[in-house]
């Protein structure tokens, strides 16, 4: 089974808001203690220094991400399954991880020839990542992005690169 874990990114952008911590919850960070050596030449005041320590802002970052898990059955093309899912709406997606076994993969060659290499056999997924984003230009909708994969053969060899064609599951993949 190949399991793909990815997040869907909402298309509307939410600007994070700054929420200052109350003074009683702030803690002095030892590495930020300063000794007065001489006159300070800049206009940086103490209030601005407090903002440099960093604060957690609840629900402001990552709140527009929705996790999904797709199962790709043996014999199906992982690439087409991901692209098909990404076309179900105007959303961007980012593949975080995957596990399972692949039986055939076509990768782009690393040189400038534009050729591809196809590997057949049983390969364990070490890493699968990628992203797809919707684009609109002149009323025409399209999608850009791609995937990269690292695979291990039964004898320990590792192959990988940009996916340029089929990525066929040998077992169910998530």
From TrEMBL:
Transmembrane segments: none annotated. Transcription factor that specifically binds AT-rich DNA sequences related to the nuclear matrix attachment regions (MARs). It is found in: Nucleus. This is AT-hook motif nuclear-localized protein. The lineage of its organism: Eukaryota, Viridiplantae, Streptophyta, Embryophyta, Tracheophyta. GO terms for molecular function: minor groove of adenine-thymine-rich DNA binding. The PPC domain mediates interactions between AHL proteins. It comes from the Eukaryota. It holds the Pfam family PCC. One of its GO terms (cellular component) is nucleus. Keywords: DNA-binding, Nucleus, Transcription, Transcription regulation. Residues 62-174 form the PPC domain.
């Amino acid at each position: 089974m190949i399991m793909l874990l990815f997040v869907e990114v909402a298309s509307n952008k939410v600007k994070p808001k700054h929420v200052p911590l109350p003074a009683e919850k702030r803690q002095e960070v030892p590495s930020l203690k300063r000794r007065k050596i001489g006159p300070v030449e800049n206009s940086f005041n103490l209030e601005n220094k407090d903002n440099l320590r960093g604060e957690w802002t609840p629900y402001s970052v990552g709140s527009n991400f929705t996790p999904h898990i797709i199962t790709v059955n043996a014999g199906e093309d992982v690439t087409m399954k991901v692209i098909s899912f990404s076309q179900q709406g105007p959303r961007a997606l980012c593949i975080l991880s995957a596990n399972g076994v692949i039986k055939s993969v076509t990768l782009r060659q690393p040189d400038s020839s534009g050729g591809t290499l196809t590997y057949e056999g049983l390969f364990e997924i070490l890493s699968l990542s990628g992203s797809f984003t919707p684009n609109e230009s002149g009323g025409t909708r399209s999608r850009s992005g791609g995937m990269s994969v690292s695979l291990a053969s039964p004898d320990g060899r590792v192959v990988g690169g940009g996916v340029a064609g089929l990525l066929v599951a040998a077992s169910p993949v998530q």
